[in-house]
């Protein structure tokens, strides 16, 4: 049966209904006094956004909604009146020795004749004069009409008493299962508020993006997933309490509500979002309510852009008022006393705000989103009980700022009532420094920086200096640098920054260890979720009839069509697929030539690769076959054919493997009824075949299309775009819109995971050498005009491309793409592939978009960052990203200047990436192979602690560092003549260039003398040693000179052995 009822829960909660009925002397249940029966009638499903109380009670008892169903509580029995399909489900309640008797009456279908079930139910009830119900609910449907007619004809139309308030009281106190669902709903609401609404708002303000309140609301709504789209786990995974949430049971109670100065402020719940654009000034209100398994949670926050002192004071008062009401909202307090306490507190602290205060401070919550019987208003005398859930809402409306603009403030949280006080279940994004944004006036800051002394902060805006909270977010052209690197540039904060990073890194490492244990907890005893290699079957021919005719001659035949070698064995033609053959060798000996065919078999060493897997390694294998012939020319030809066929088979296998992750995209749906939005005169990378000519990009219904000048086209669907970037042409020659794909597509003959549309920012119409327009003009005026024109042209290009990227994001619909812009002020240099490039962080990634091959590293996919070759004396270090998916190859970024080490550390810490550092390069290929063999055991043994601690943990003593160095490379070159070779094979993993550059630059600085001078110094020191009688010892200790290349070692050897230590550190 698809629907399973919780029978025990039903009887437990039904017993609460009867218990409350018998306790009618209590104030909250007084409406139940003197009733002969209670009826809960549910008709056709309504279009109401909020849940009706009858449906809420039905869901509370049965766990599901049952439309067109009547439930009647008699004094000692429960009756149901419903259709036959619902009766099959309700029969689960008829268990032996049931605590409460159940009887079900089935409504007859229209074709079955008169319906006697309502009459039979009325007769079973007997005499009923006062009937409890919900008369204010407008129910419709055949069952409603039939039951009302039966009440009038057979029960004499009894008096129907409204019991809505009593039902609300019955469901108000939540049991443990209900509280668990409410907490989950609260975590969902808080996470969407903190990690999406607040962060997205900050991004919009920072970039001055134009977006309507309605579009903003839809983007938030899409994060929960809908219409077959999965929830965005990049957001939900940030809350550890949501690890085991069933997202199919989560839904929005109503669409998120965003309000700003342009839309006006409406503090009622479920206000409609406006289509007006979001204001970038003033106050922004955000409300989110999510329901989980029927139970709702609600959270509202107020955000400020350049707030005044008055607004800061009022907001601080709102927070203090909420804290005051939390202590008042406890077991035994009446609802009106809570509101009266709020009014009293306002009159005492800020009496001028009383007229702006809302008419209530919240309401009861549960399965029914808003229980009006528990409204925290001045007239409600109902008592609050421990275990109840409320939406505590503090709001002030119709406030005016210094410019006469109207604004409002609202802070709402879902709270649980306790014996002593209430506690908030929703949390986060409420402190002053989390909700206040300050724009940075770049022009003013630049002009002031010239006059200010060098010790003052040049990046801190004037508005921020007035704010008491130094942690407030600065929104402007340098928001991230201010947040991560210059928060307190007026003071020396290096020590506090180091301590903060150290503490934060400890938390991140502990979290990674706990997450790893949770992630692989179910993999115990298996291969860690990684599939092992399996033997692939090959079939050359389906039968003897398919063998080629050439085999009749009983000679070795190479069948290229079927990728097979047919050889004679004891008078039989035996085929071998080319993949079973390892190689072929030929040997001329005397007048005969020997052809040896070697086959794949277990136990063979294949270099660094694992042995080929076999279906049955214990079987008997043919290792090789050898043939002898006097026809040397024929055997030469056979050896050549087999070798070429083997190369061809290997090439096909590699191509097939390379294209394994390429997806077949769906068809692009062209936009109809109007012309598509276009971006003309752009080039594409990777380039199409043919002459390099510009094309245009079009935005369609489900993707974008690039049309080349030669008729070629590239289609990219929104569903396949993982990241969308816009890179302005500031200090660059290109302006770019870049698409990083989820799965690669084929462009030309190659697969590509990155597609880029760009235009060159240089102006070819003007000749910089003095021809054409410039040859008749002279002086600085000409150069100034050209610079101004260049600046305007770049601004126009940036505006055009950014607008087009935003149009792509808007057209993406349910995919909710966001335009990510690199932060140039956070860039650092490095070598991710073969050349030195500038790497730029974005909100979600680390990118290099200007020079192919492109680099896009998604920050949320990074498990840990390892900083290597970090030691005194080296001018460069390496950064390695290890991904959450351990099967992916770690990403190396080599040769990063050491002067940028602190900046890289602070950035990594700010984006929640754990890091570790060490003095040498590690062999990550071998490390990841070991981890993949048993990930669970790896995390049980401490996980990433083997890397030697966090990058922030630089407080180790010098002896610790020397111990670490000696552990890896404590032996000199004399003791290990081939140490460089062994280290390259053991530790080096693609970082040769970085080590060569680092060590080379160091040698250049140390060796100031030429070769002749160094030779003279060396000879002089030898003579002096012989005169003192220690020539034999010094000669035996010094490595033998092989040539002039060793001269730097001698020259750098002065200084009592410092050079050898430095060489060890550099290796």
TrEMBL record:
Start-end of Acidic residues biased regions: 960-1012
Assembly with partners or alone: Component of the FACT complex.
SUPFAM superfamilies: Creatinase/aminopeptidase
Family matches, as InterPro entries: Creatin/AminoP/Spt16_N, Creatinase/aminopeptidase-like, FACT-SPT16_Nlobe, Fact-SPT16_PH, FACT_SPT16_C, FACT_SPT16_M, Pept_M24, PH-like_dom_sf
UniProt keyword terms in alphabetical order: Chromosome, Coiled coil, DNA damage, DNA repair, DNA replication, Nucleus, Transcription, Transcription regulation
GO biological process, one term: DNA repair
Biological role stated in the UniProt entry: Component of the FACT complex, a general chromatin factor that acts to reorganize nucleosomes. The FACT complex is involved in multiple processes that require DNA as a template such as mRNA elongation, DNA replication and DNA repair. During transcription elongation the FACT complex acts as a histone chaperone that both destabilizes and restores nucleosomal structure.
Coiled-coil regions, chain positions: 635-665
Compartments, as annotated in UniProt: Nucleus; Chromosome
Molecular function per GO: nucleosome binding
Regions of compositional bias (Low complexity) in chain numbering: 456-470, 1045-1067
Family note: Belongs to the peptidase M24 family. SPT16 subfamily.
Stated name of the protein: FACT complex subunit
Occurrences of domain FACT complex subunit SPT16 N-terminal lobe (ranges): 5-167
Domain of life: Eukaryota
Domain Histone chaperone RTT106/FACT complex subunit SPT16-like middle: 828-918
Chief location bin: nucleus
This protein's GO CC annotations: FACT complex
Feature: compositional bias, Basic and acidic residues: 445-455, 1013-1038
Region described as Disordered: spans on this chain: 445-493, 949-1067
Segments forming domain FACT complex subunit SPT16 middle: 556-706
